[in-house]
Amino acid sequence: MSERILIIGAGFAGMWSALGAMRLLDQQGKADGSVEVAVIAPQPELHIRPRLYEKHAYKMKAPLSEVFANAGVRFIKGYATAISTAQNSVTYSGDEGRENTMGYTKLVLATGSVLFRPDIPGLDHAFNVDQVADAAELEEHILQLGRLPESRSRNTVIVAGGGFTGIETAAEMPHRLRAALGEHADIRVIVVERNDAIGPDLGPGPRPVIEQAFSELGVETRLGAAITAIDRDGVTLASGERIEAATVIWTAGARANPITKQIDAEKDAFGRLHVDRNLKVVGHSNVYATGDVAYAATDDVGNRTMMSCQHAQNLGRSAGHNVAADLLGVAPIPYSQEKYVTCLDLGPWGAVYTEGWDRQVKLSGAEAKRLKTRINTEWIYPPSADRAAALAAADPQRIVVA
């Protein structure tokens, strides 16, 4: 059997890992089949998760079959169900649910994150924008609201969680509701956040811009409030307050894909695997982790990667290069991403763009929105299917900060 780099996941980190590995194999004259690069994922497509708060969510995916085929990456359709680091093997469920086992020389875990679902009564009544199907279900629900009798509940959306996703989702809701219910409908959008400030993880830098946008969009906030129960007619808060709403959207955080539990290694509070600067899982010679399942240092001053598309793309390029370098005995290129930016969509109001870990506001309003639109419609999409162009784009020293 030829040596095999096996990558689990075809998201941002998984796609770029595969291309990054093929790029180095190509440079080293090893793209002759002596080393196979294979990807296991449910579908050969990239789901554009950063855009799932937008309308037409069902369109937020991009095909990867041609990109992979031209680059020389083998795609295997299936869901990984078990990892044996002792046997260097992965078990996956393929077509018709048949179980298959595949060996690897080196493994790259790029399985991404899943929505955090705490034990809250009635949480299954809430919608979310975590996956394409989830976001499409929410969109269909909103479109059908106009068929319901006029009521305060029908006209109210509650967004649970005031973090990045919650803010972007809430900012989109006023005009989405009016499109469904009529331009003059008396609508309410309420963000419920456990912390005492909106965007607690974003810090104070962009907060005044967010608050201004919410004020002008008509988005309300309930800060320092926790949802204790959800039903089909609304939510109950820890204070005892009842808010009637036909639409509740849960956005309160993410966790690393639970398959990380099968790797006997140190993890952070979000289930991410501790990795070294080359993205190798600490304590495992043949396993790398990247994207949302990696707890990685971005620099030498203590900053760590976020669960974001911005970091996943660069983590993927680095993981792919370094796992191939490990296999070939070539010097790795340690992962580093010292520049950190955020670009937060604020719906029709605009956006806010910040730079640095202290998130200094550089652009806001319409100007920032133009940048956000370019990020969402151009920069985060897969590369050209042209082999040379795709491999060139996978250079780990080509840092993308978007």
UniProtKB/TrEMBL annotation:
Keyword presence, Flavoprotein: yes
Q: Identify the cofactor(s).
A: FAD
Alphabetized GO MF terms: oxidoreductase activity
Stretches assigned to the FAD/NAD(P)-binding domain: 4-314
First-level EC class: oxidoreductase
The record's section on InterPro entries has: FAD/NAD-bd_sf (IPR036188), FAD/NAD-binding_dom (IPR023753), NADH-Q_oxidoreductase (IPR051169)
Q: Into which family does the record put it?
A: Belongs to the NADH dehydrogenase family.
- According to its UniProt record, the EC number is 1.6.5.-
Put simply, this protein is called NAD(P)/FAD-dependent oxidoreductase
Keyword line: FAD, Flavoprotein, Oxidoreductase
